[in-house]
Design goal:
The chain is of the alpha+beta class and 310 residues long. The chain is built from 10 helices and 14 strands. Strands 1, 2, 3, 4, 11, 12, 13 and 14 form an 8-stranded mixed β-sheet that branches. α1 runs antiparallel to α2 and α7 packs parallel to α8 (206-219).
Length: 310
């Protein structure tokens, strides 16, 4: 509940910027709010996945200490807005996200910003494999779910690099759900029970993959990934850091503990959480809290007095 206050605050501060075209202003407001509220949380946190080098942000950077210093030692991954472009455009599925795990348990991507990922729910355990062609995975997952391949829906970031992948998904008989942004939302939806997404695949952010792994561990699903350097320089950095670029990273590789928390508050309207809304004298937020140790998903709806925020 302490963590969800931080994502709620980030979503509320981002609200005035929804649909106004300035993604940097939205992100800056969310970062400031999240950082302020994280300072009150009873833990000794170190930001392992932050705004950092990729986003050139001054706060919530990798290595920053957060929390009040009392309580457990934790790794912290933050994304004050997963989907800044979605927020700026007023599109769906932007989230404010925090993931927490035991200290030293989160994977260090060592400046490799992208990875090829596959995420699905419990039906895919022992069934899907990122090393298989996407068509084989679709057919295997459909069989495990007891449905036709035409009933399988696959989320993919709408990027030129995925043109061939999208074609192969459709050739296998499945439908696509093309995402403009929102890597974390796509993965969590694929792992979540009763979602309209069955599978999430393609190249997205490595930090977002680690955050998603914290959620997948609570949901009992599957996440697999391989590092995808953008160029020779990034490839060499990965090799120098000791990474095996051919290795398939699974949930326990991305987060090496069974005590993870994943907290998300809707910034804009989404499939599994509502966006932050002004309703007369109140501001309403909608959040989920996932904990792997107990395997629970809690939903939190909060009403704030708007006069204290506006």
């Amino acid at each position: 509940m302490e963590l969800v206050r931080a994502t709620e605050a980030a979503a509320i501060r981002a609200m005035p910027f929804i649909g106004h075209g300035d993604k940097n202003a939205a992100d800056g407001a969310a970062v400031d709010a999240m950082r302020q509220f994280l300072s009150t949380v009873n833990f000794s946190g170190v930001v392992v996945i932050g705004e950092g080098e990729k986003d050139d942000a001054p706060w919530l950077y990798n290595g920053e200490e957060v929390g009040n210093g009392r309580g457990p030692a934790c790794d912290v991954a933050v994304d004050p807005i997963d989907g800044t472009s979605l927020t700026a455009a007023g599109r769906q599925n932007a989230l404010s996200v925090i993931a927490v795990a035991d200290r030293g348990s989160m994977y260090d991507p060592s400046a490799v910003f992208y990875m090829d990922k596959l995420v699905c729910g419990p039906d895919g355990v022992g069934v899907v494999d990122i090393r298989q062609p996407i068509g084989e995975n679709i057919r295997a997952l459909a069989k495990a779910k007891g449905v036709s391949t035409s009933d399988i829906r696959v989320a993919v970031l709408d990027r030129p690099r995925h043109a061939q992948l999208i074609e192969e998904i459709r050739e296998a008989g499945a439908g696509t759900r093309l995402m403009l942004d929102g890597d974390v939302a796509g993965g969590v939806n694929a792992a979540r029970y009763e979602s309209r997404i069955d599978l999430c695949v393609g190249i997205g952010g490595t930090p977002e993959g680690i955050i998603t792994a914290c959620a997948v561990k609570a949901l009992g699903g599957v996440i697999q990934g391989t590092l995808a350097p953008r160029d020779d320089d990034e490839r060499q950095k990965a090799i120098d850091a000791g990474h095996d670029l051919s290795a398939v990273l699974e949930a326990n590789d991305l987060v090496k503990c069974d005590n993870t928390y994943f907290v998300a508050t809707g910034v804009t309207q989404g499939e599994f959480v509502d966006g932050v809304q002004r309703r007369g004298p109140i501001i309403r937020t909608d959040s989920i809290v996932l904990r792997s140790k107990s395997g629970t998903l809690r939903r939190v709806r909060a009403d704030y007095q708007a006069s204290r925020w506006v």
